[in-house]
Amino acid sequence: MLKQRPQAPSRIIALFLIAPALLVLTGCSQVSGLGFEENLSSVNDISLSLWQGAWIAAGVVGLITLILIVWPAIFHRKKVGAPEFPKQTQYNVPVEIAYTIIPFIIVAVLFYFTAVKESQIVEKSPTTVAHEIGVEGIQWSWQFSYPEAGPKAIVTGTPAQPPTLYVPLGERVRYTITSNDVVHGFWIPAFMIQIQNLPGVTNHLEFTANKLGTYPGRCNILCGRNHTQMIFSVKVVTPSEYKSYLETLKAANV
Ligand SMILES: [Cu+2]
User: Fold this and answer.
1) How far, in Å, from the CA of 154 to the mean position of ligand 1?
2) Which domains does the chain have, with CATH numbers?
3) Mind listing the pLDDT tens digit for each residue in 138-150?
4) Per-position b or e across 140-174, b if 16+ CB within 10 A of its CB
5) Which residues on neighbouring strands pair with residue 193, listed in sequence order?
6) Is the omega angle on the peptide bond into residue 140 within 30 degrees of 0, that is, cis?
7) Could you give the angle at which helices 42-75 and 93-121 cross, rounded to 10 degrees?
8) What is the CA(13)–ligand 1 centre distance, in A?
9) pLDDT at 11 over 80
10) What is the pTM of this model?
């Protein structure tokens, strides 16, 4: 038999009301990129608020769920002399409607904002872009082509020698995404970019890199035995350095 527990002290109630509020508030004051840097690419500018918003929404839902779990465990414990089971109820229609509608609203809101952002990301320039680069996935590396430097300006990587994708700073590039065998995923984590390389399908993506540096790139679709070796680097260089890189490719492939 359980001993009668003292009335729940008011500080426990305060803890459960104030602690979540504090967590949320301190979280809000420090909403950073949550792992992503702002303004690194034109895609980051669009996606970052969605990423932050999704985490805040998840935090709020998680907190409410935690309170709902812990609350009965503390405040509805078995009392001395109480029957073995508390009063059993079923078919609480208002509650069931609530827990059907609330998740639906959450999913609908997330879907809406995702669709809005996605359509902005895949938007094509009405006029011509500054540069074109081809990105072909091959088992198991990448092939980058630079049509501005001629049809032969193709850099092919291998698992032993991963290739580098040169990208001009601050200039919009249209990427043509293809595959010559299976499905691959062109992924530059820091730029919040991923688009699939599909055999028989040509995808396009346009974006601008906004900060000089070298960033890791990966294939993020399990594409076969050596999938993990499908790595590459993205090197963001100044427009003049990009021009001379194109010249080097042109000279090497004449
Ligand atoms: Cu792959």
Assistant:
1) 18
2) 10-121 (no CATH), 131-252 (2.60.40.420)
3) 999 999 999 999 9
4) bbbbbbbeebeeebbbebeeeebbbbbbbbeeebb
5) 188
6) yes
7) 160
8) 53
9) no
10) 0.79
pLDDT tier, 19 (very low <50, low <70, confident <90, very high otherwise): low
Residues constituting the chain: 254
Distance of CA 104 from the midpoint of ligand 1 (Å): 35
What does the block give as tokens for 245?
Answer: 């890189």
Helices (H) and strands (E) in the chain, counts: 4, 10
Q: List CB-based neighbours of ion ligand 1 within 5 Å.
A: 184, 219, 223, 230
Report whether 227 contacts 219 (CB < 8 A). Answer: yes
The upper half-sphere exposure of residue 73, i.e. CA atoms within 13 Å in the direction of its Cβ, equals 6
The residue whose two tokens read 């932050």 is 52
* Mean pLDDT computed over every residue of the chain: 88
Rounded to the nearest whole angstrom, what is the distance from the C-alpha of residue 142 to the centroid of ligand 1? 9
Ligand 1 centre and the CA of 253: distance in Å? 27
Q: How far is the CA of 224 from the centre of ligand 1 (A)?
A: 7
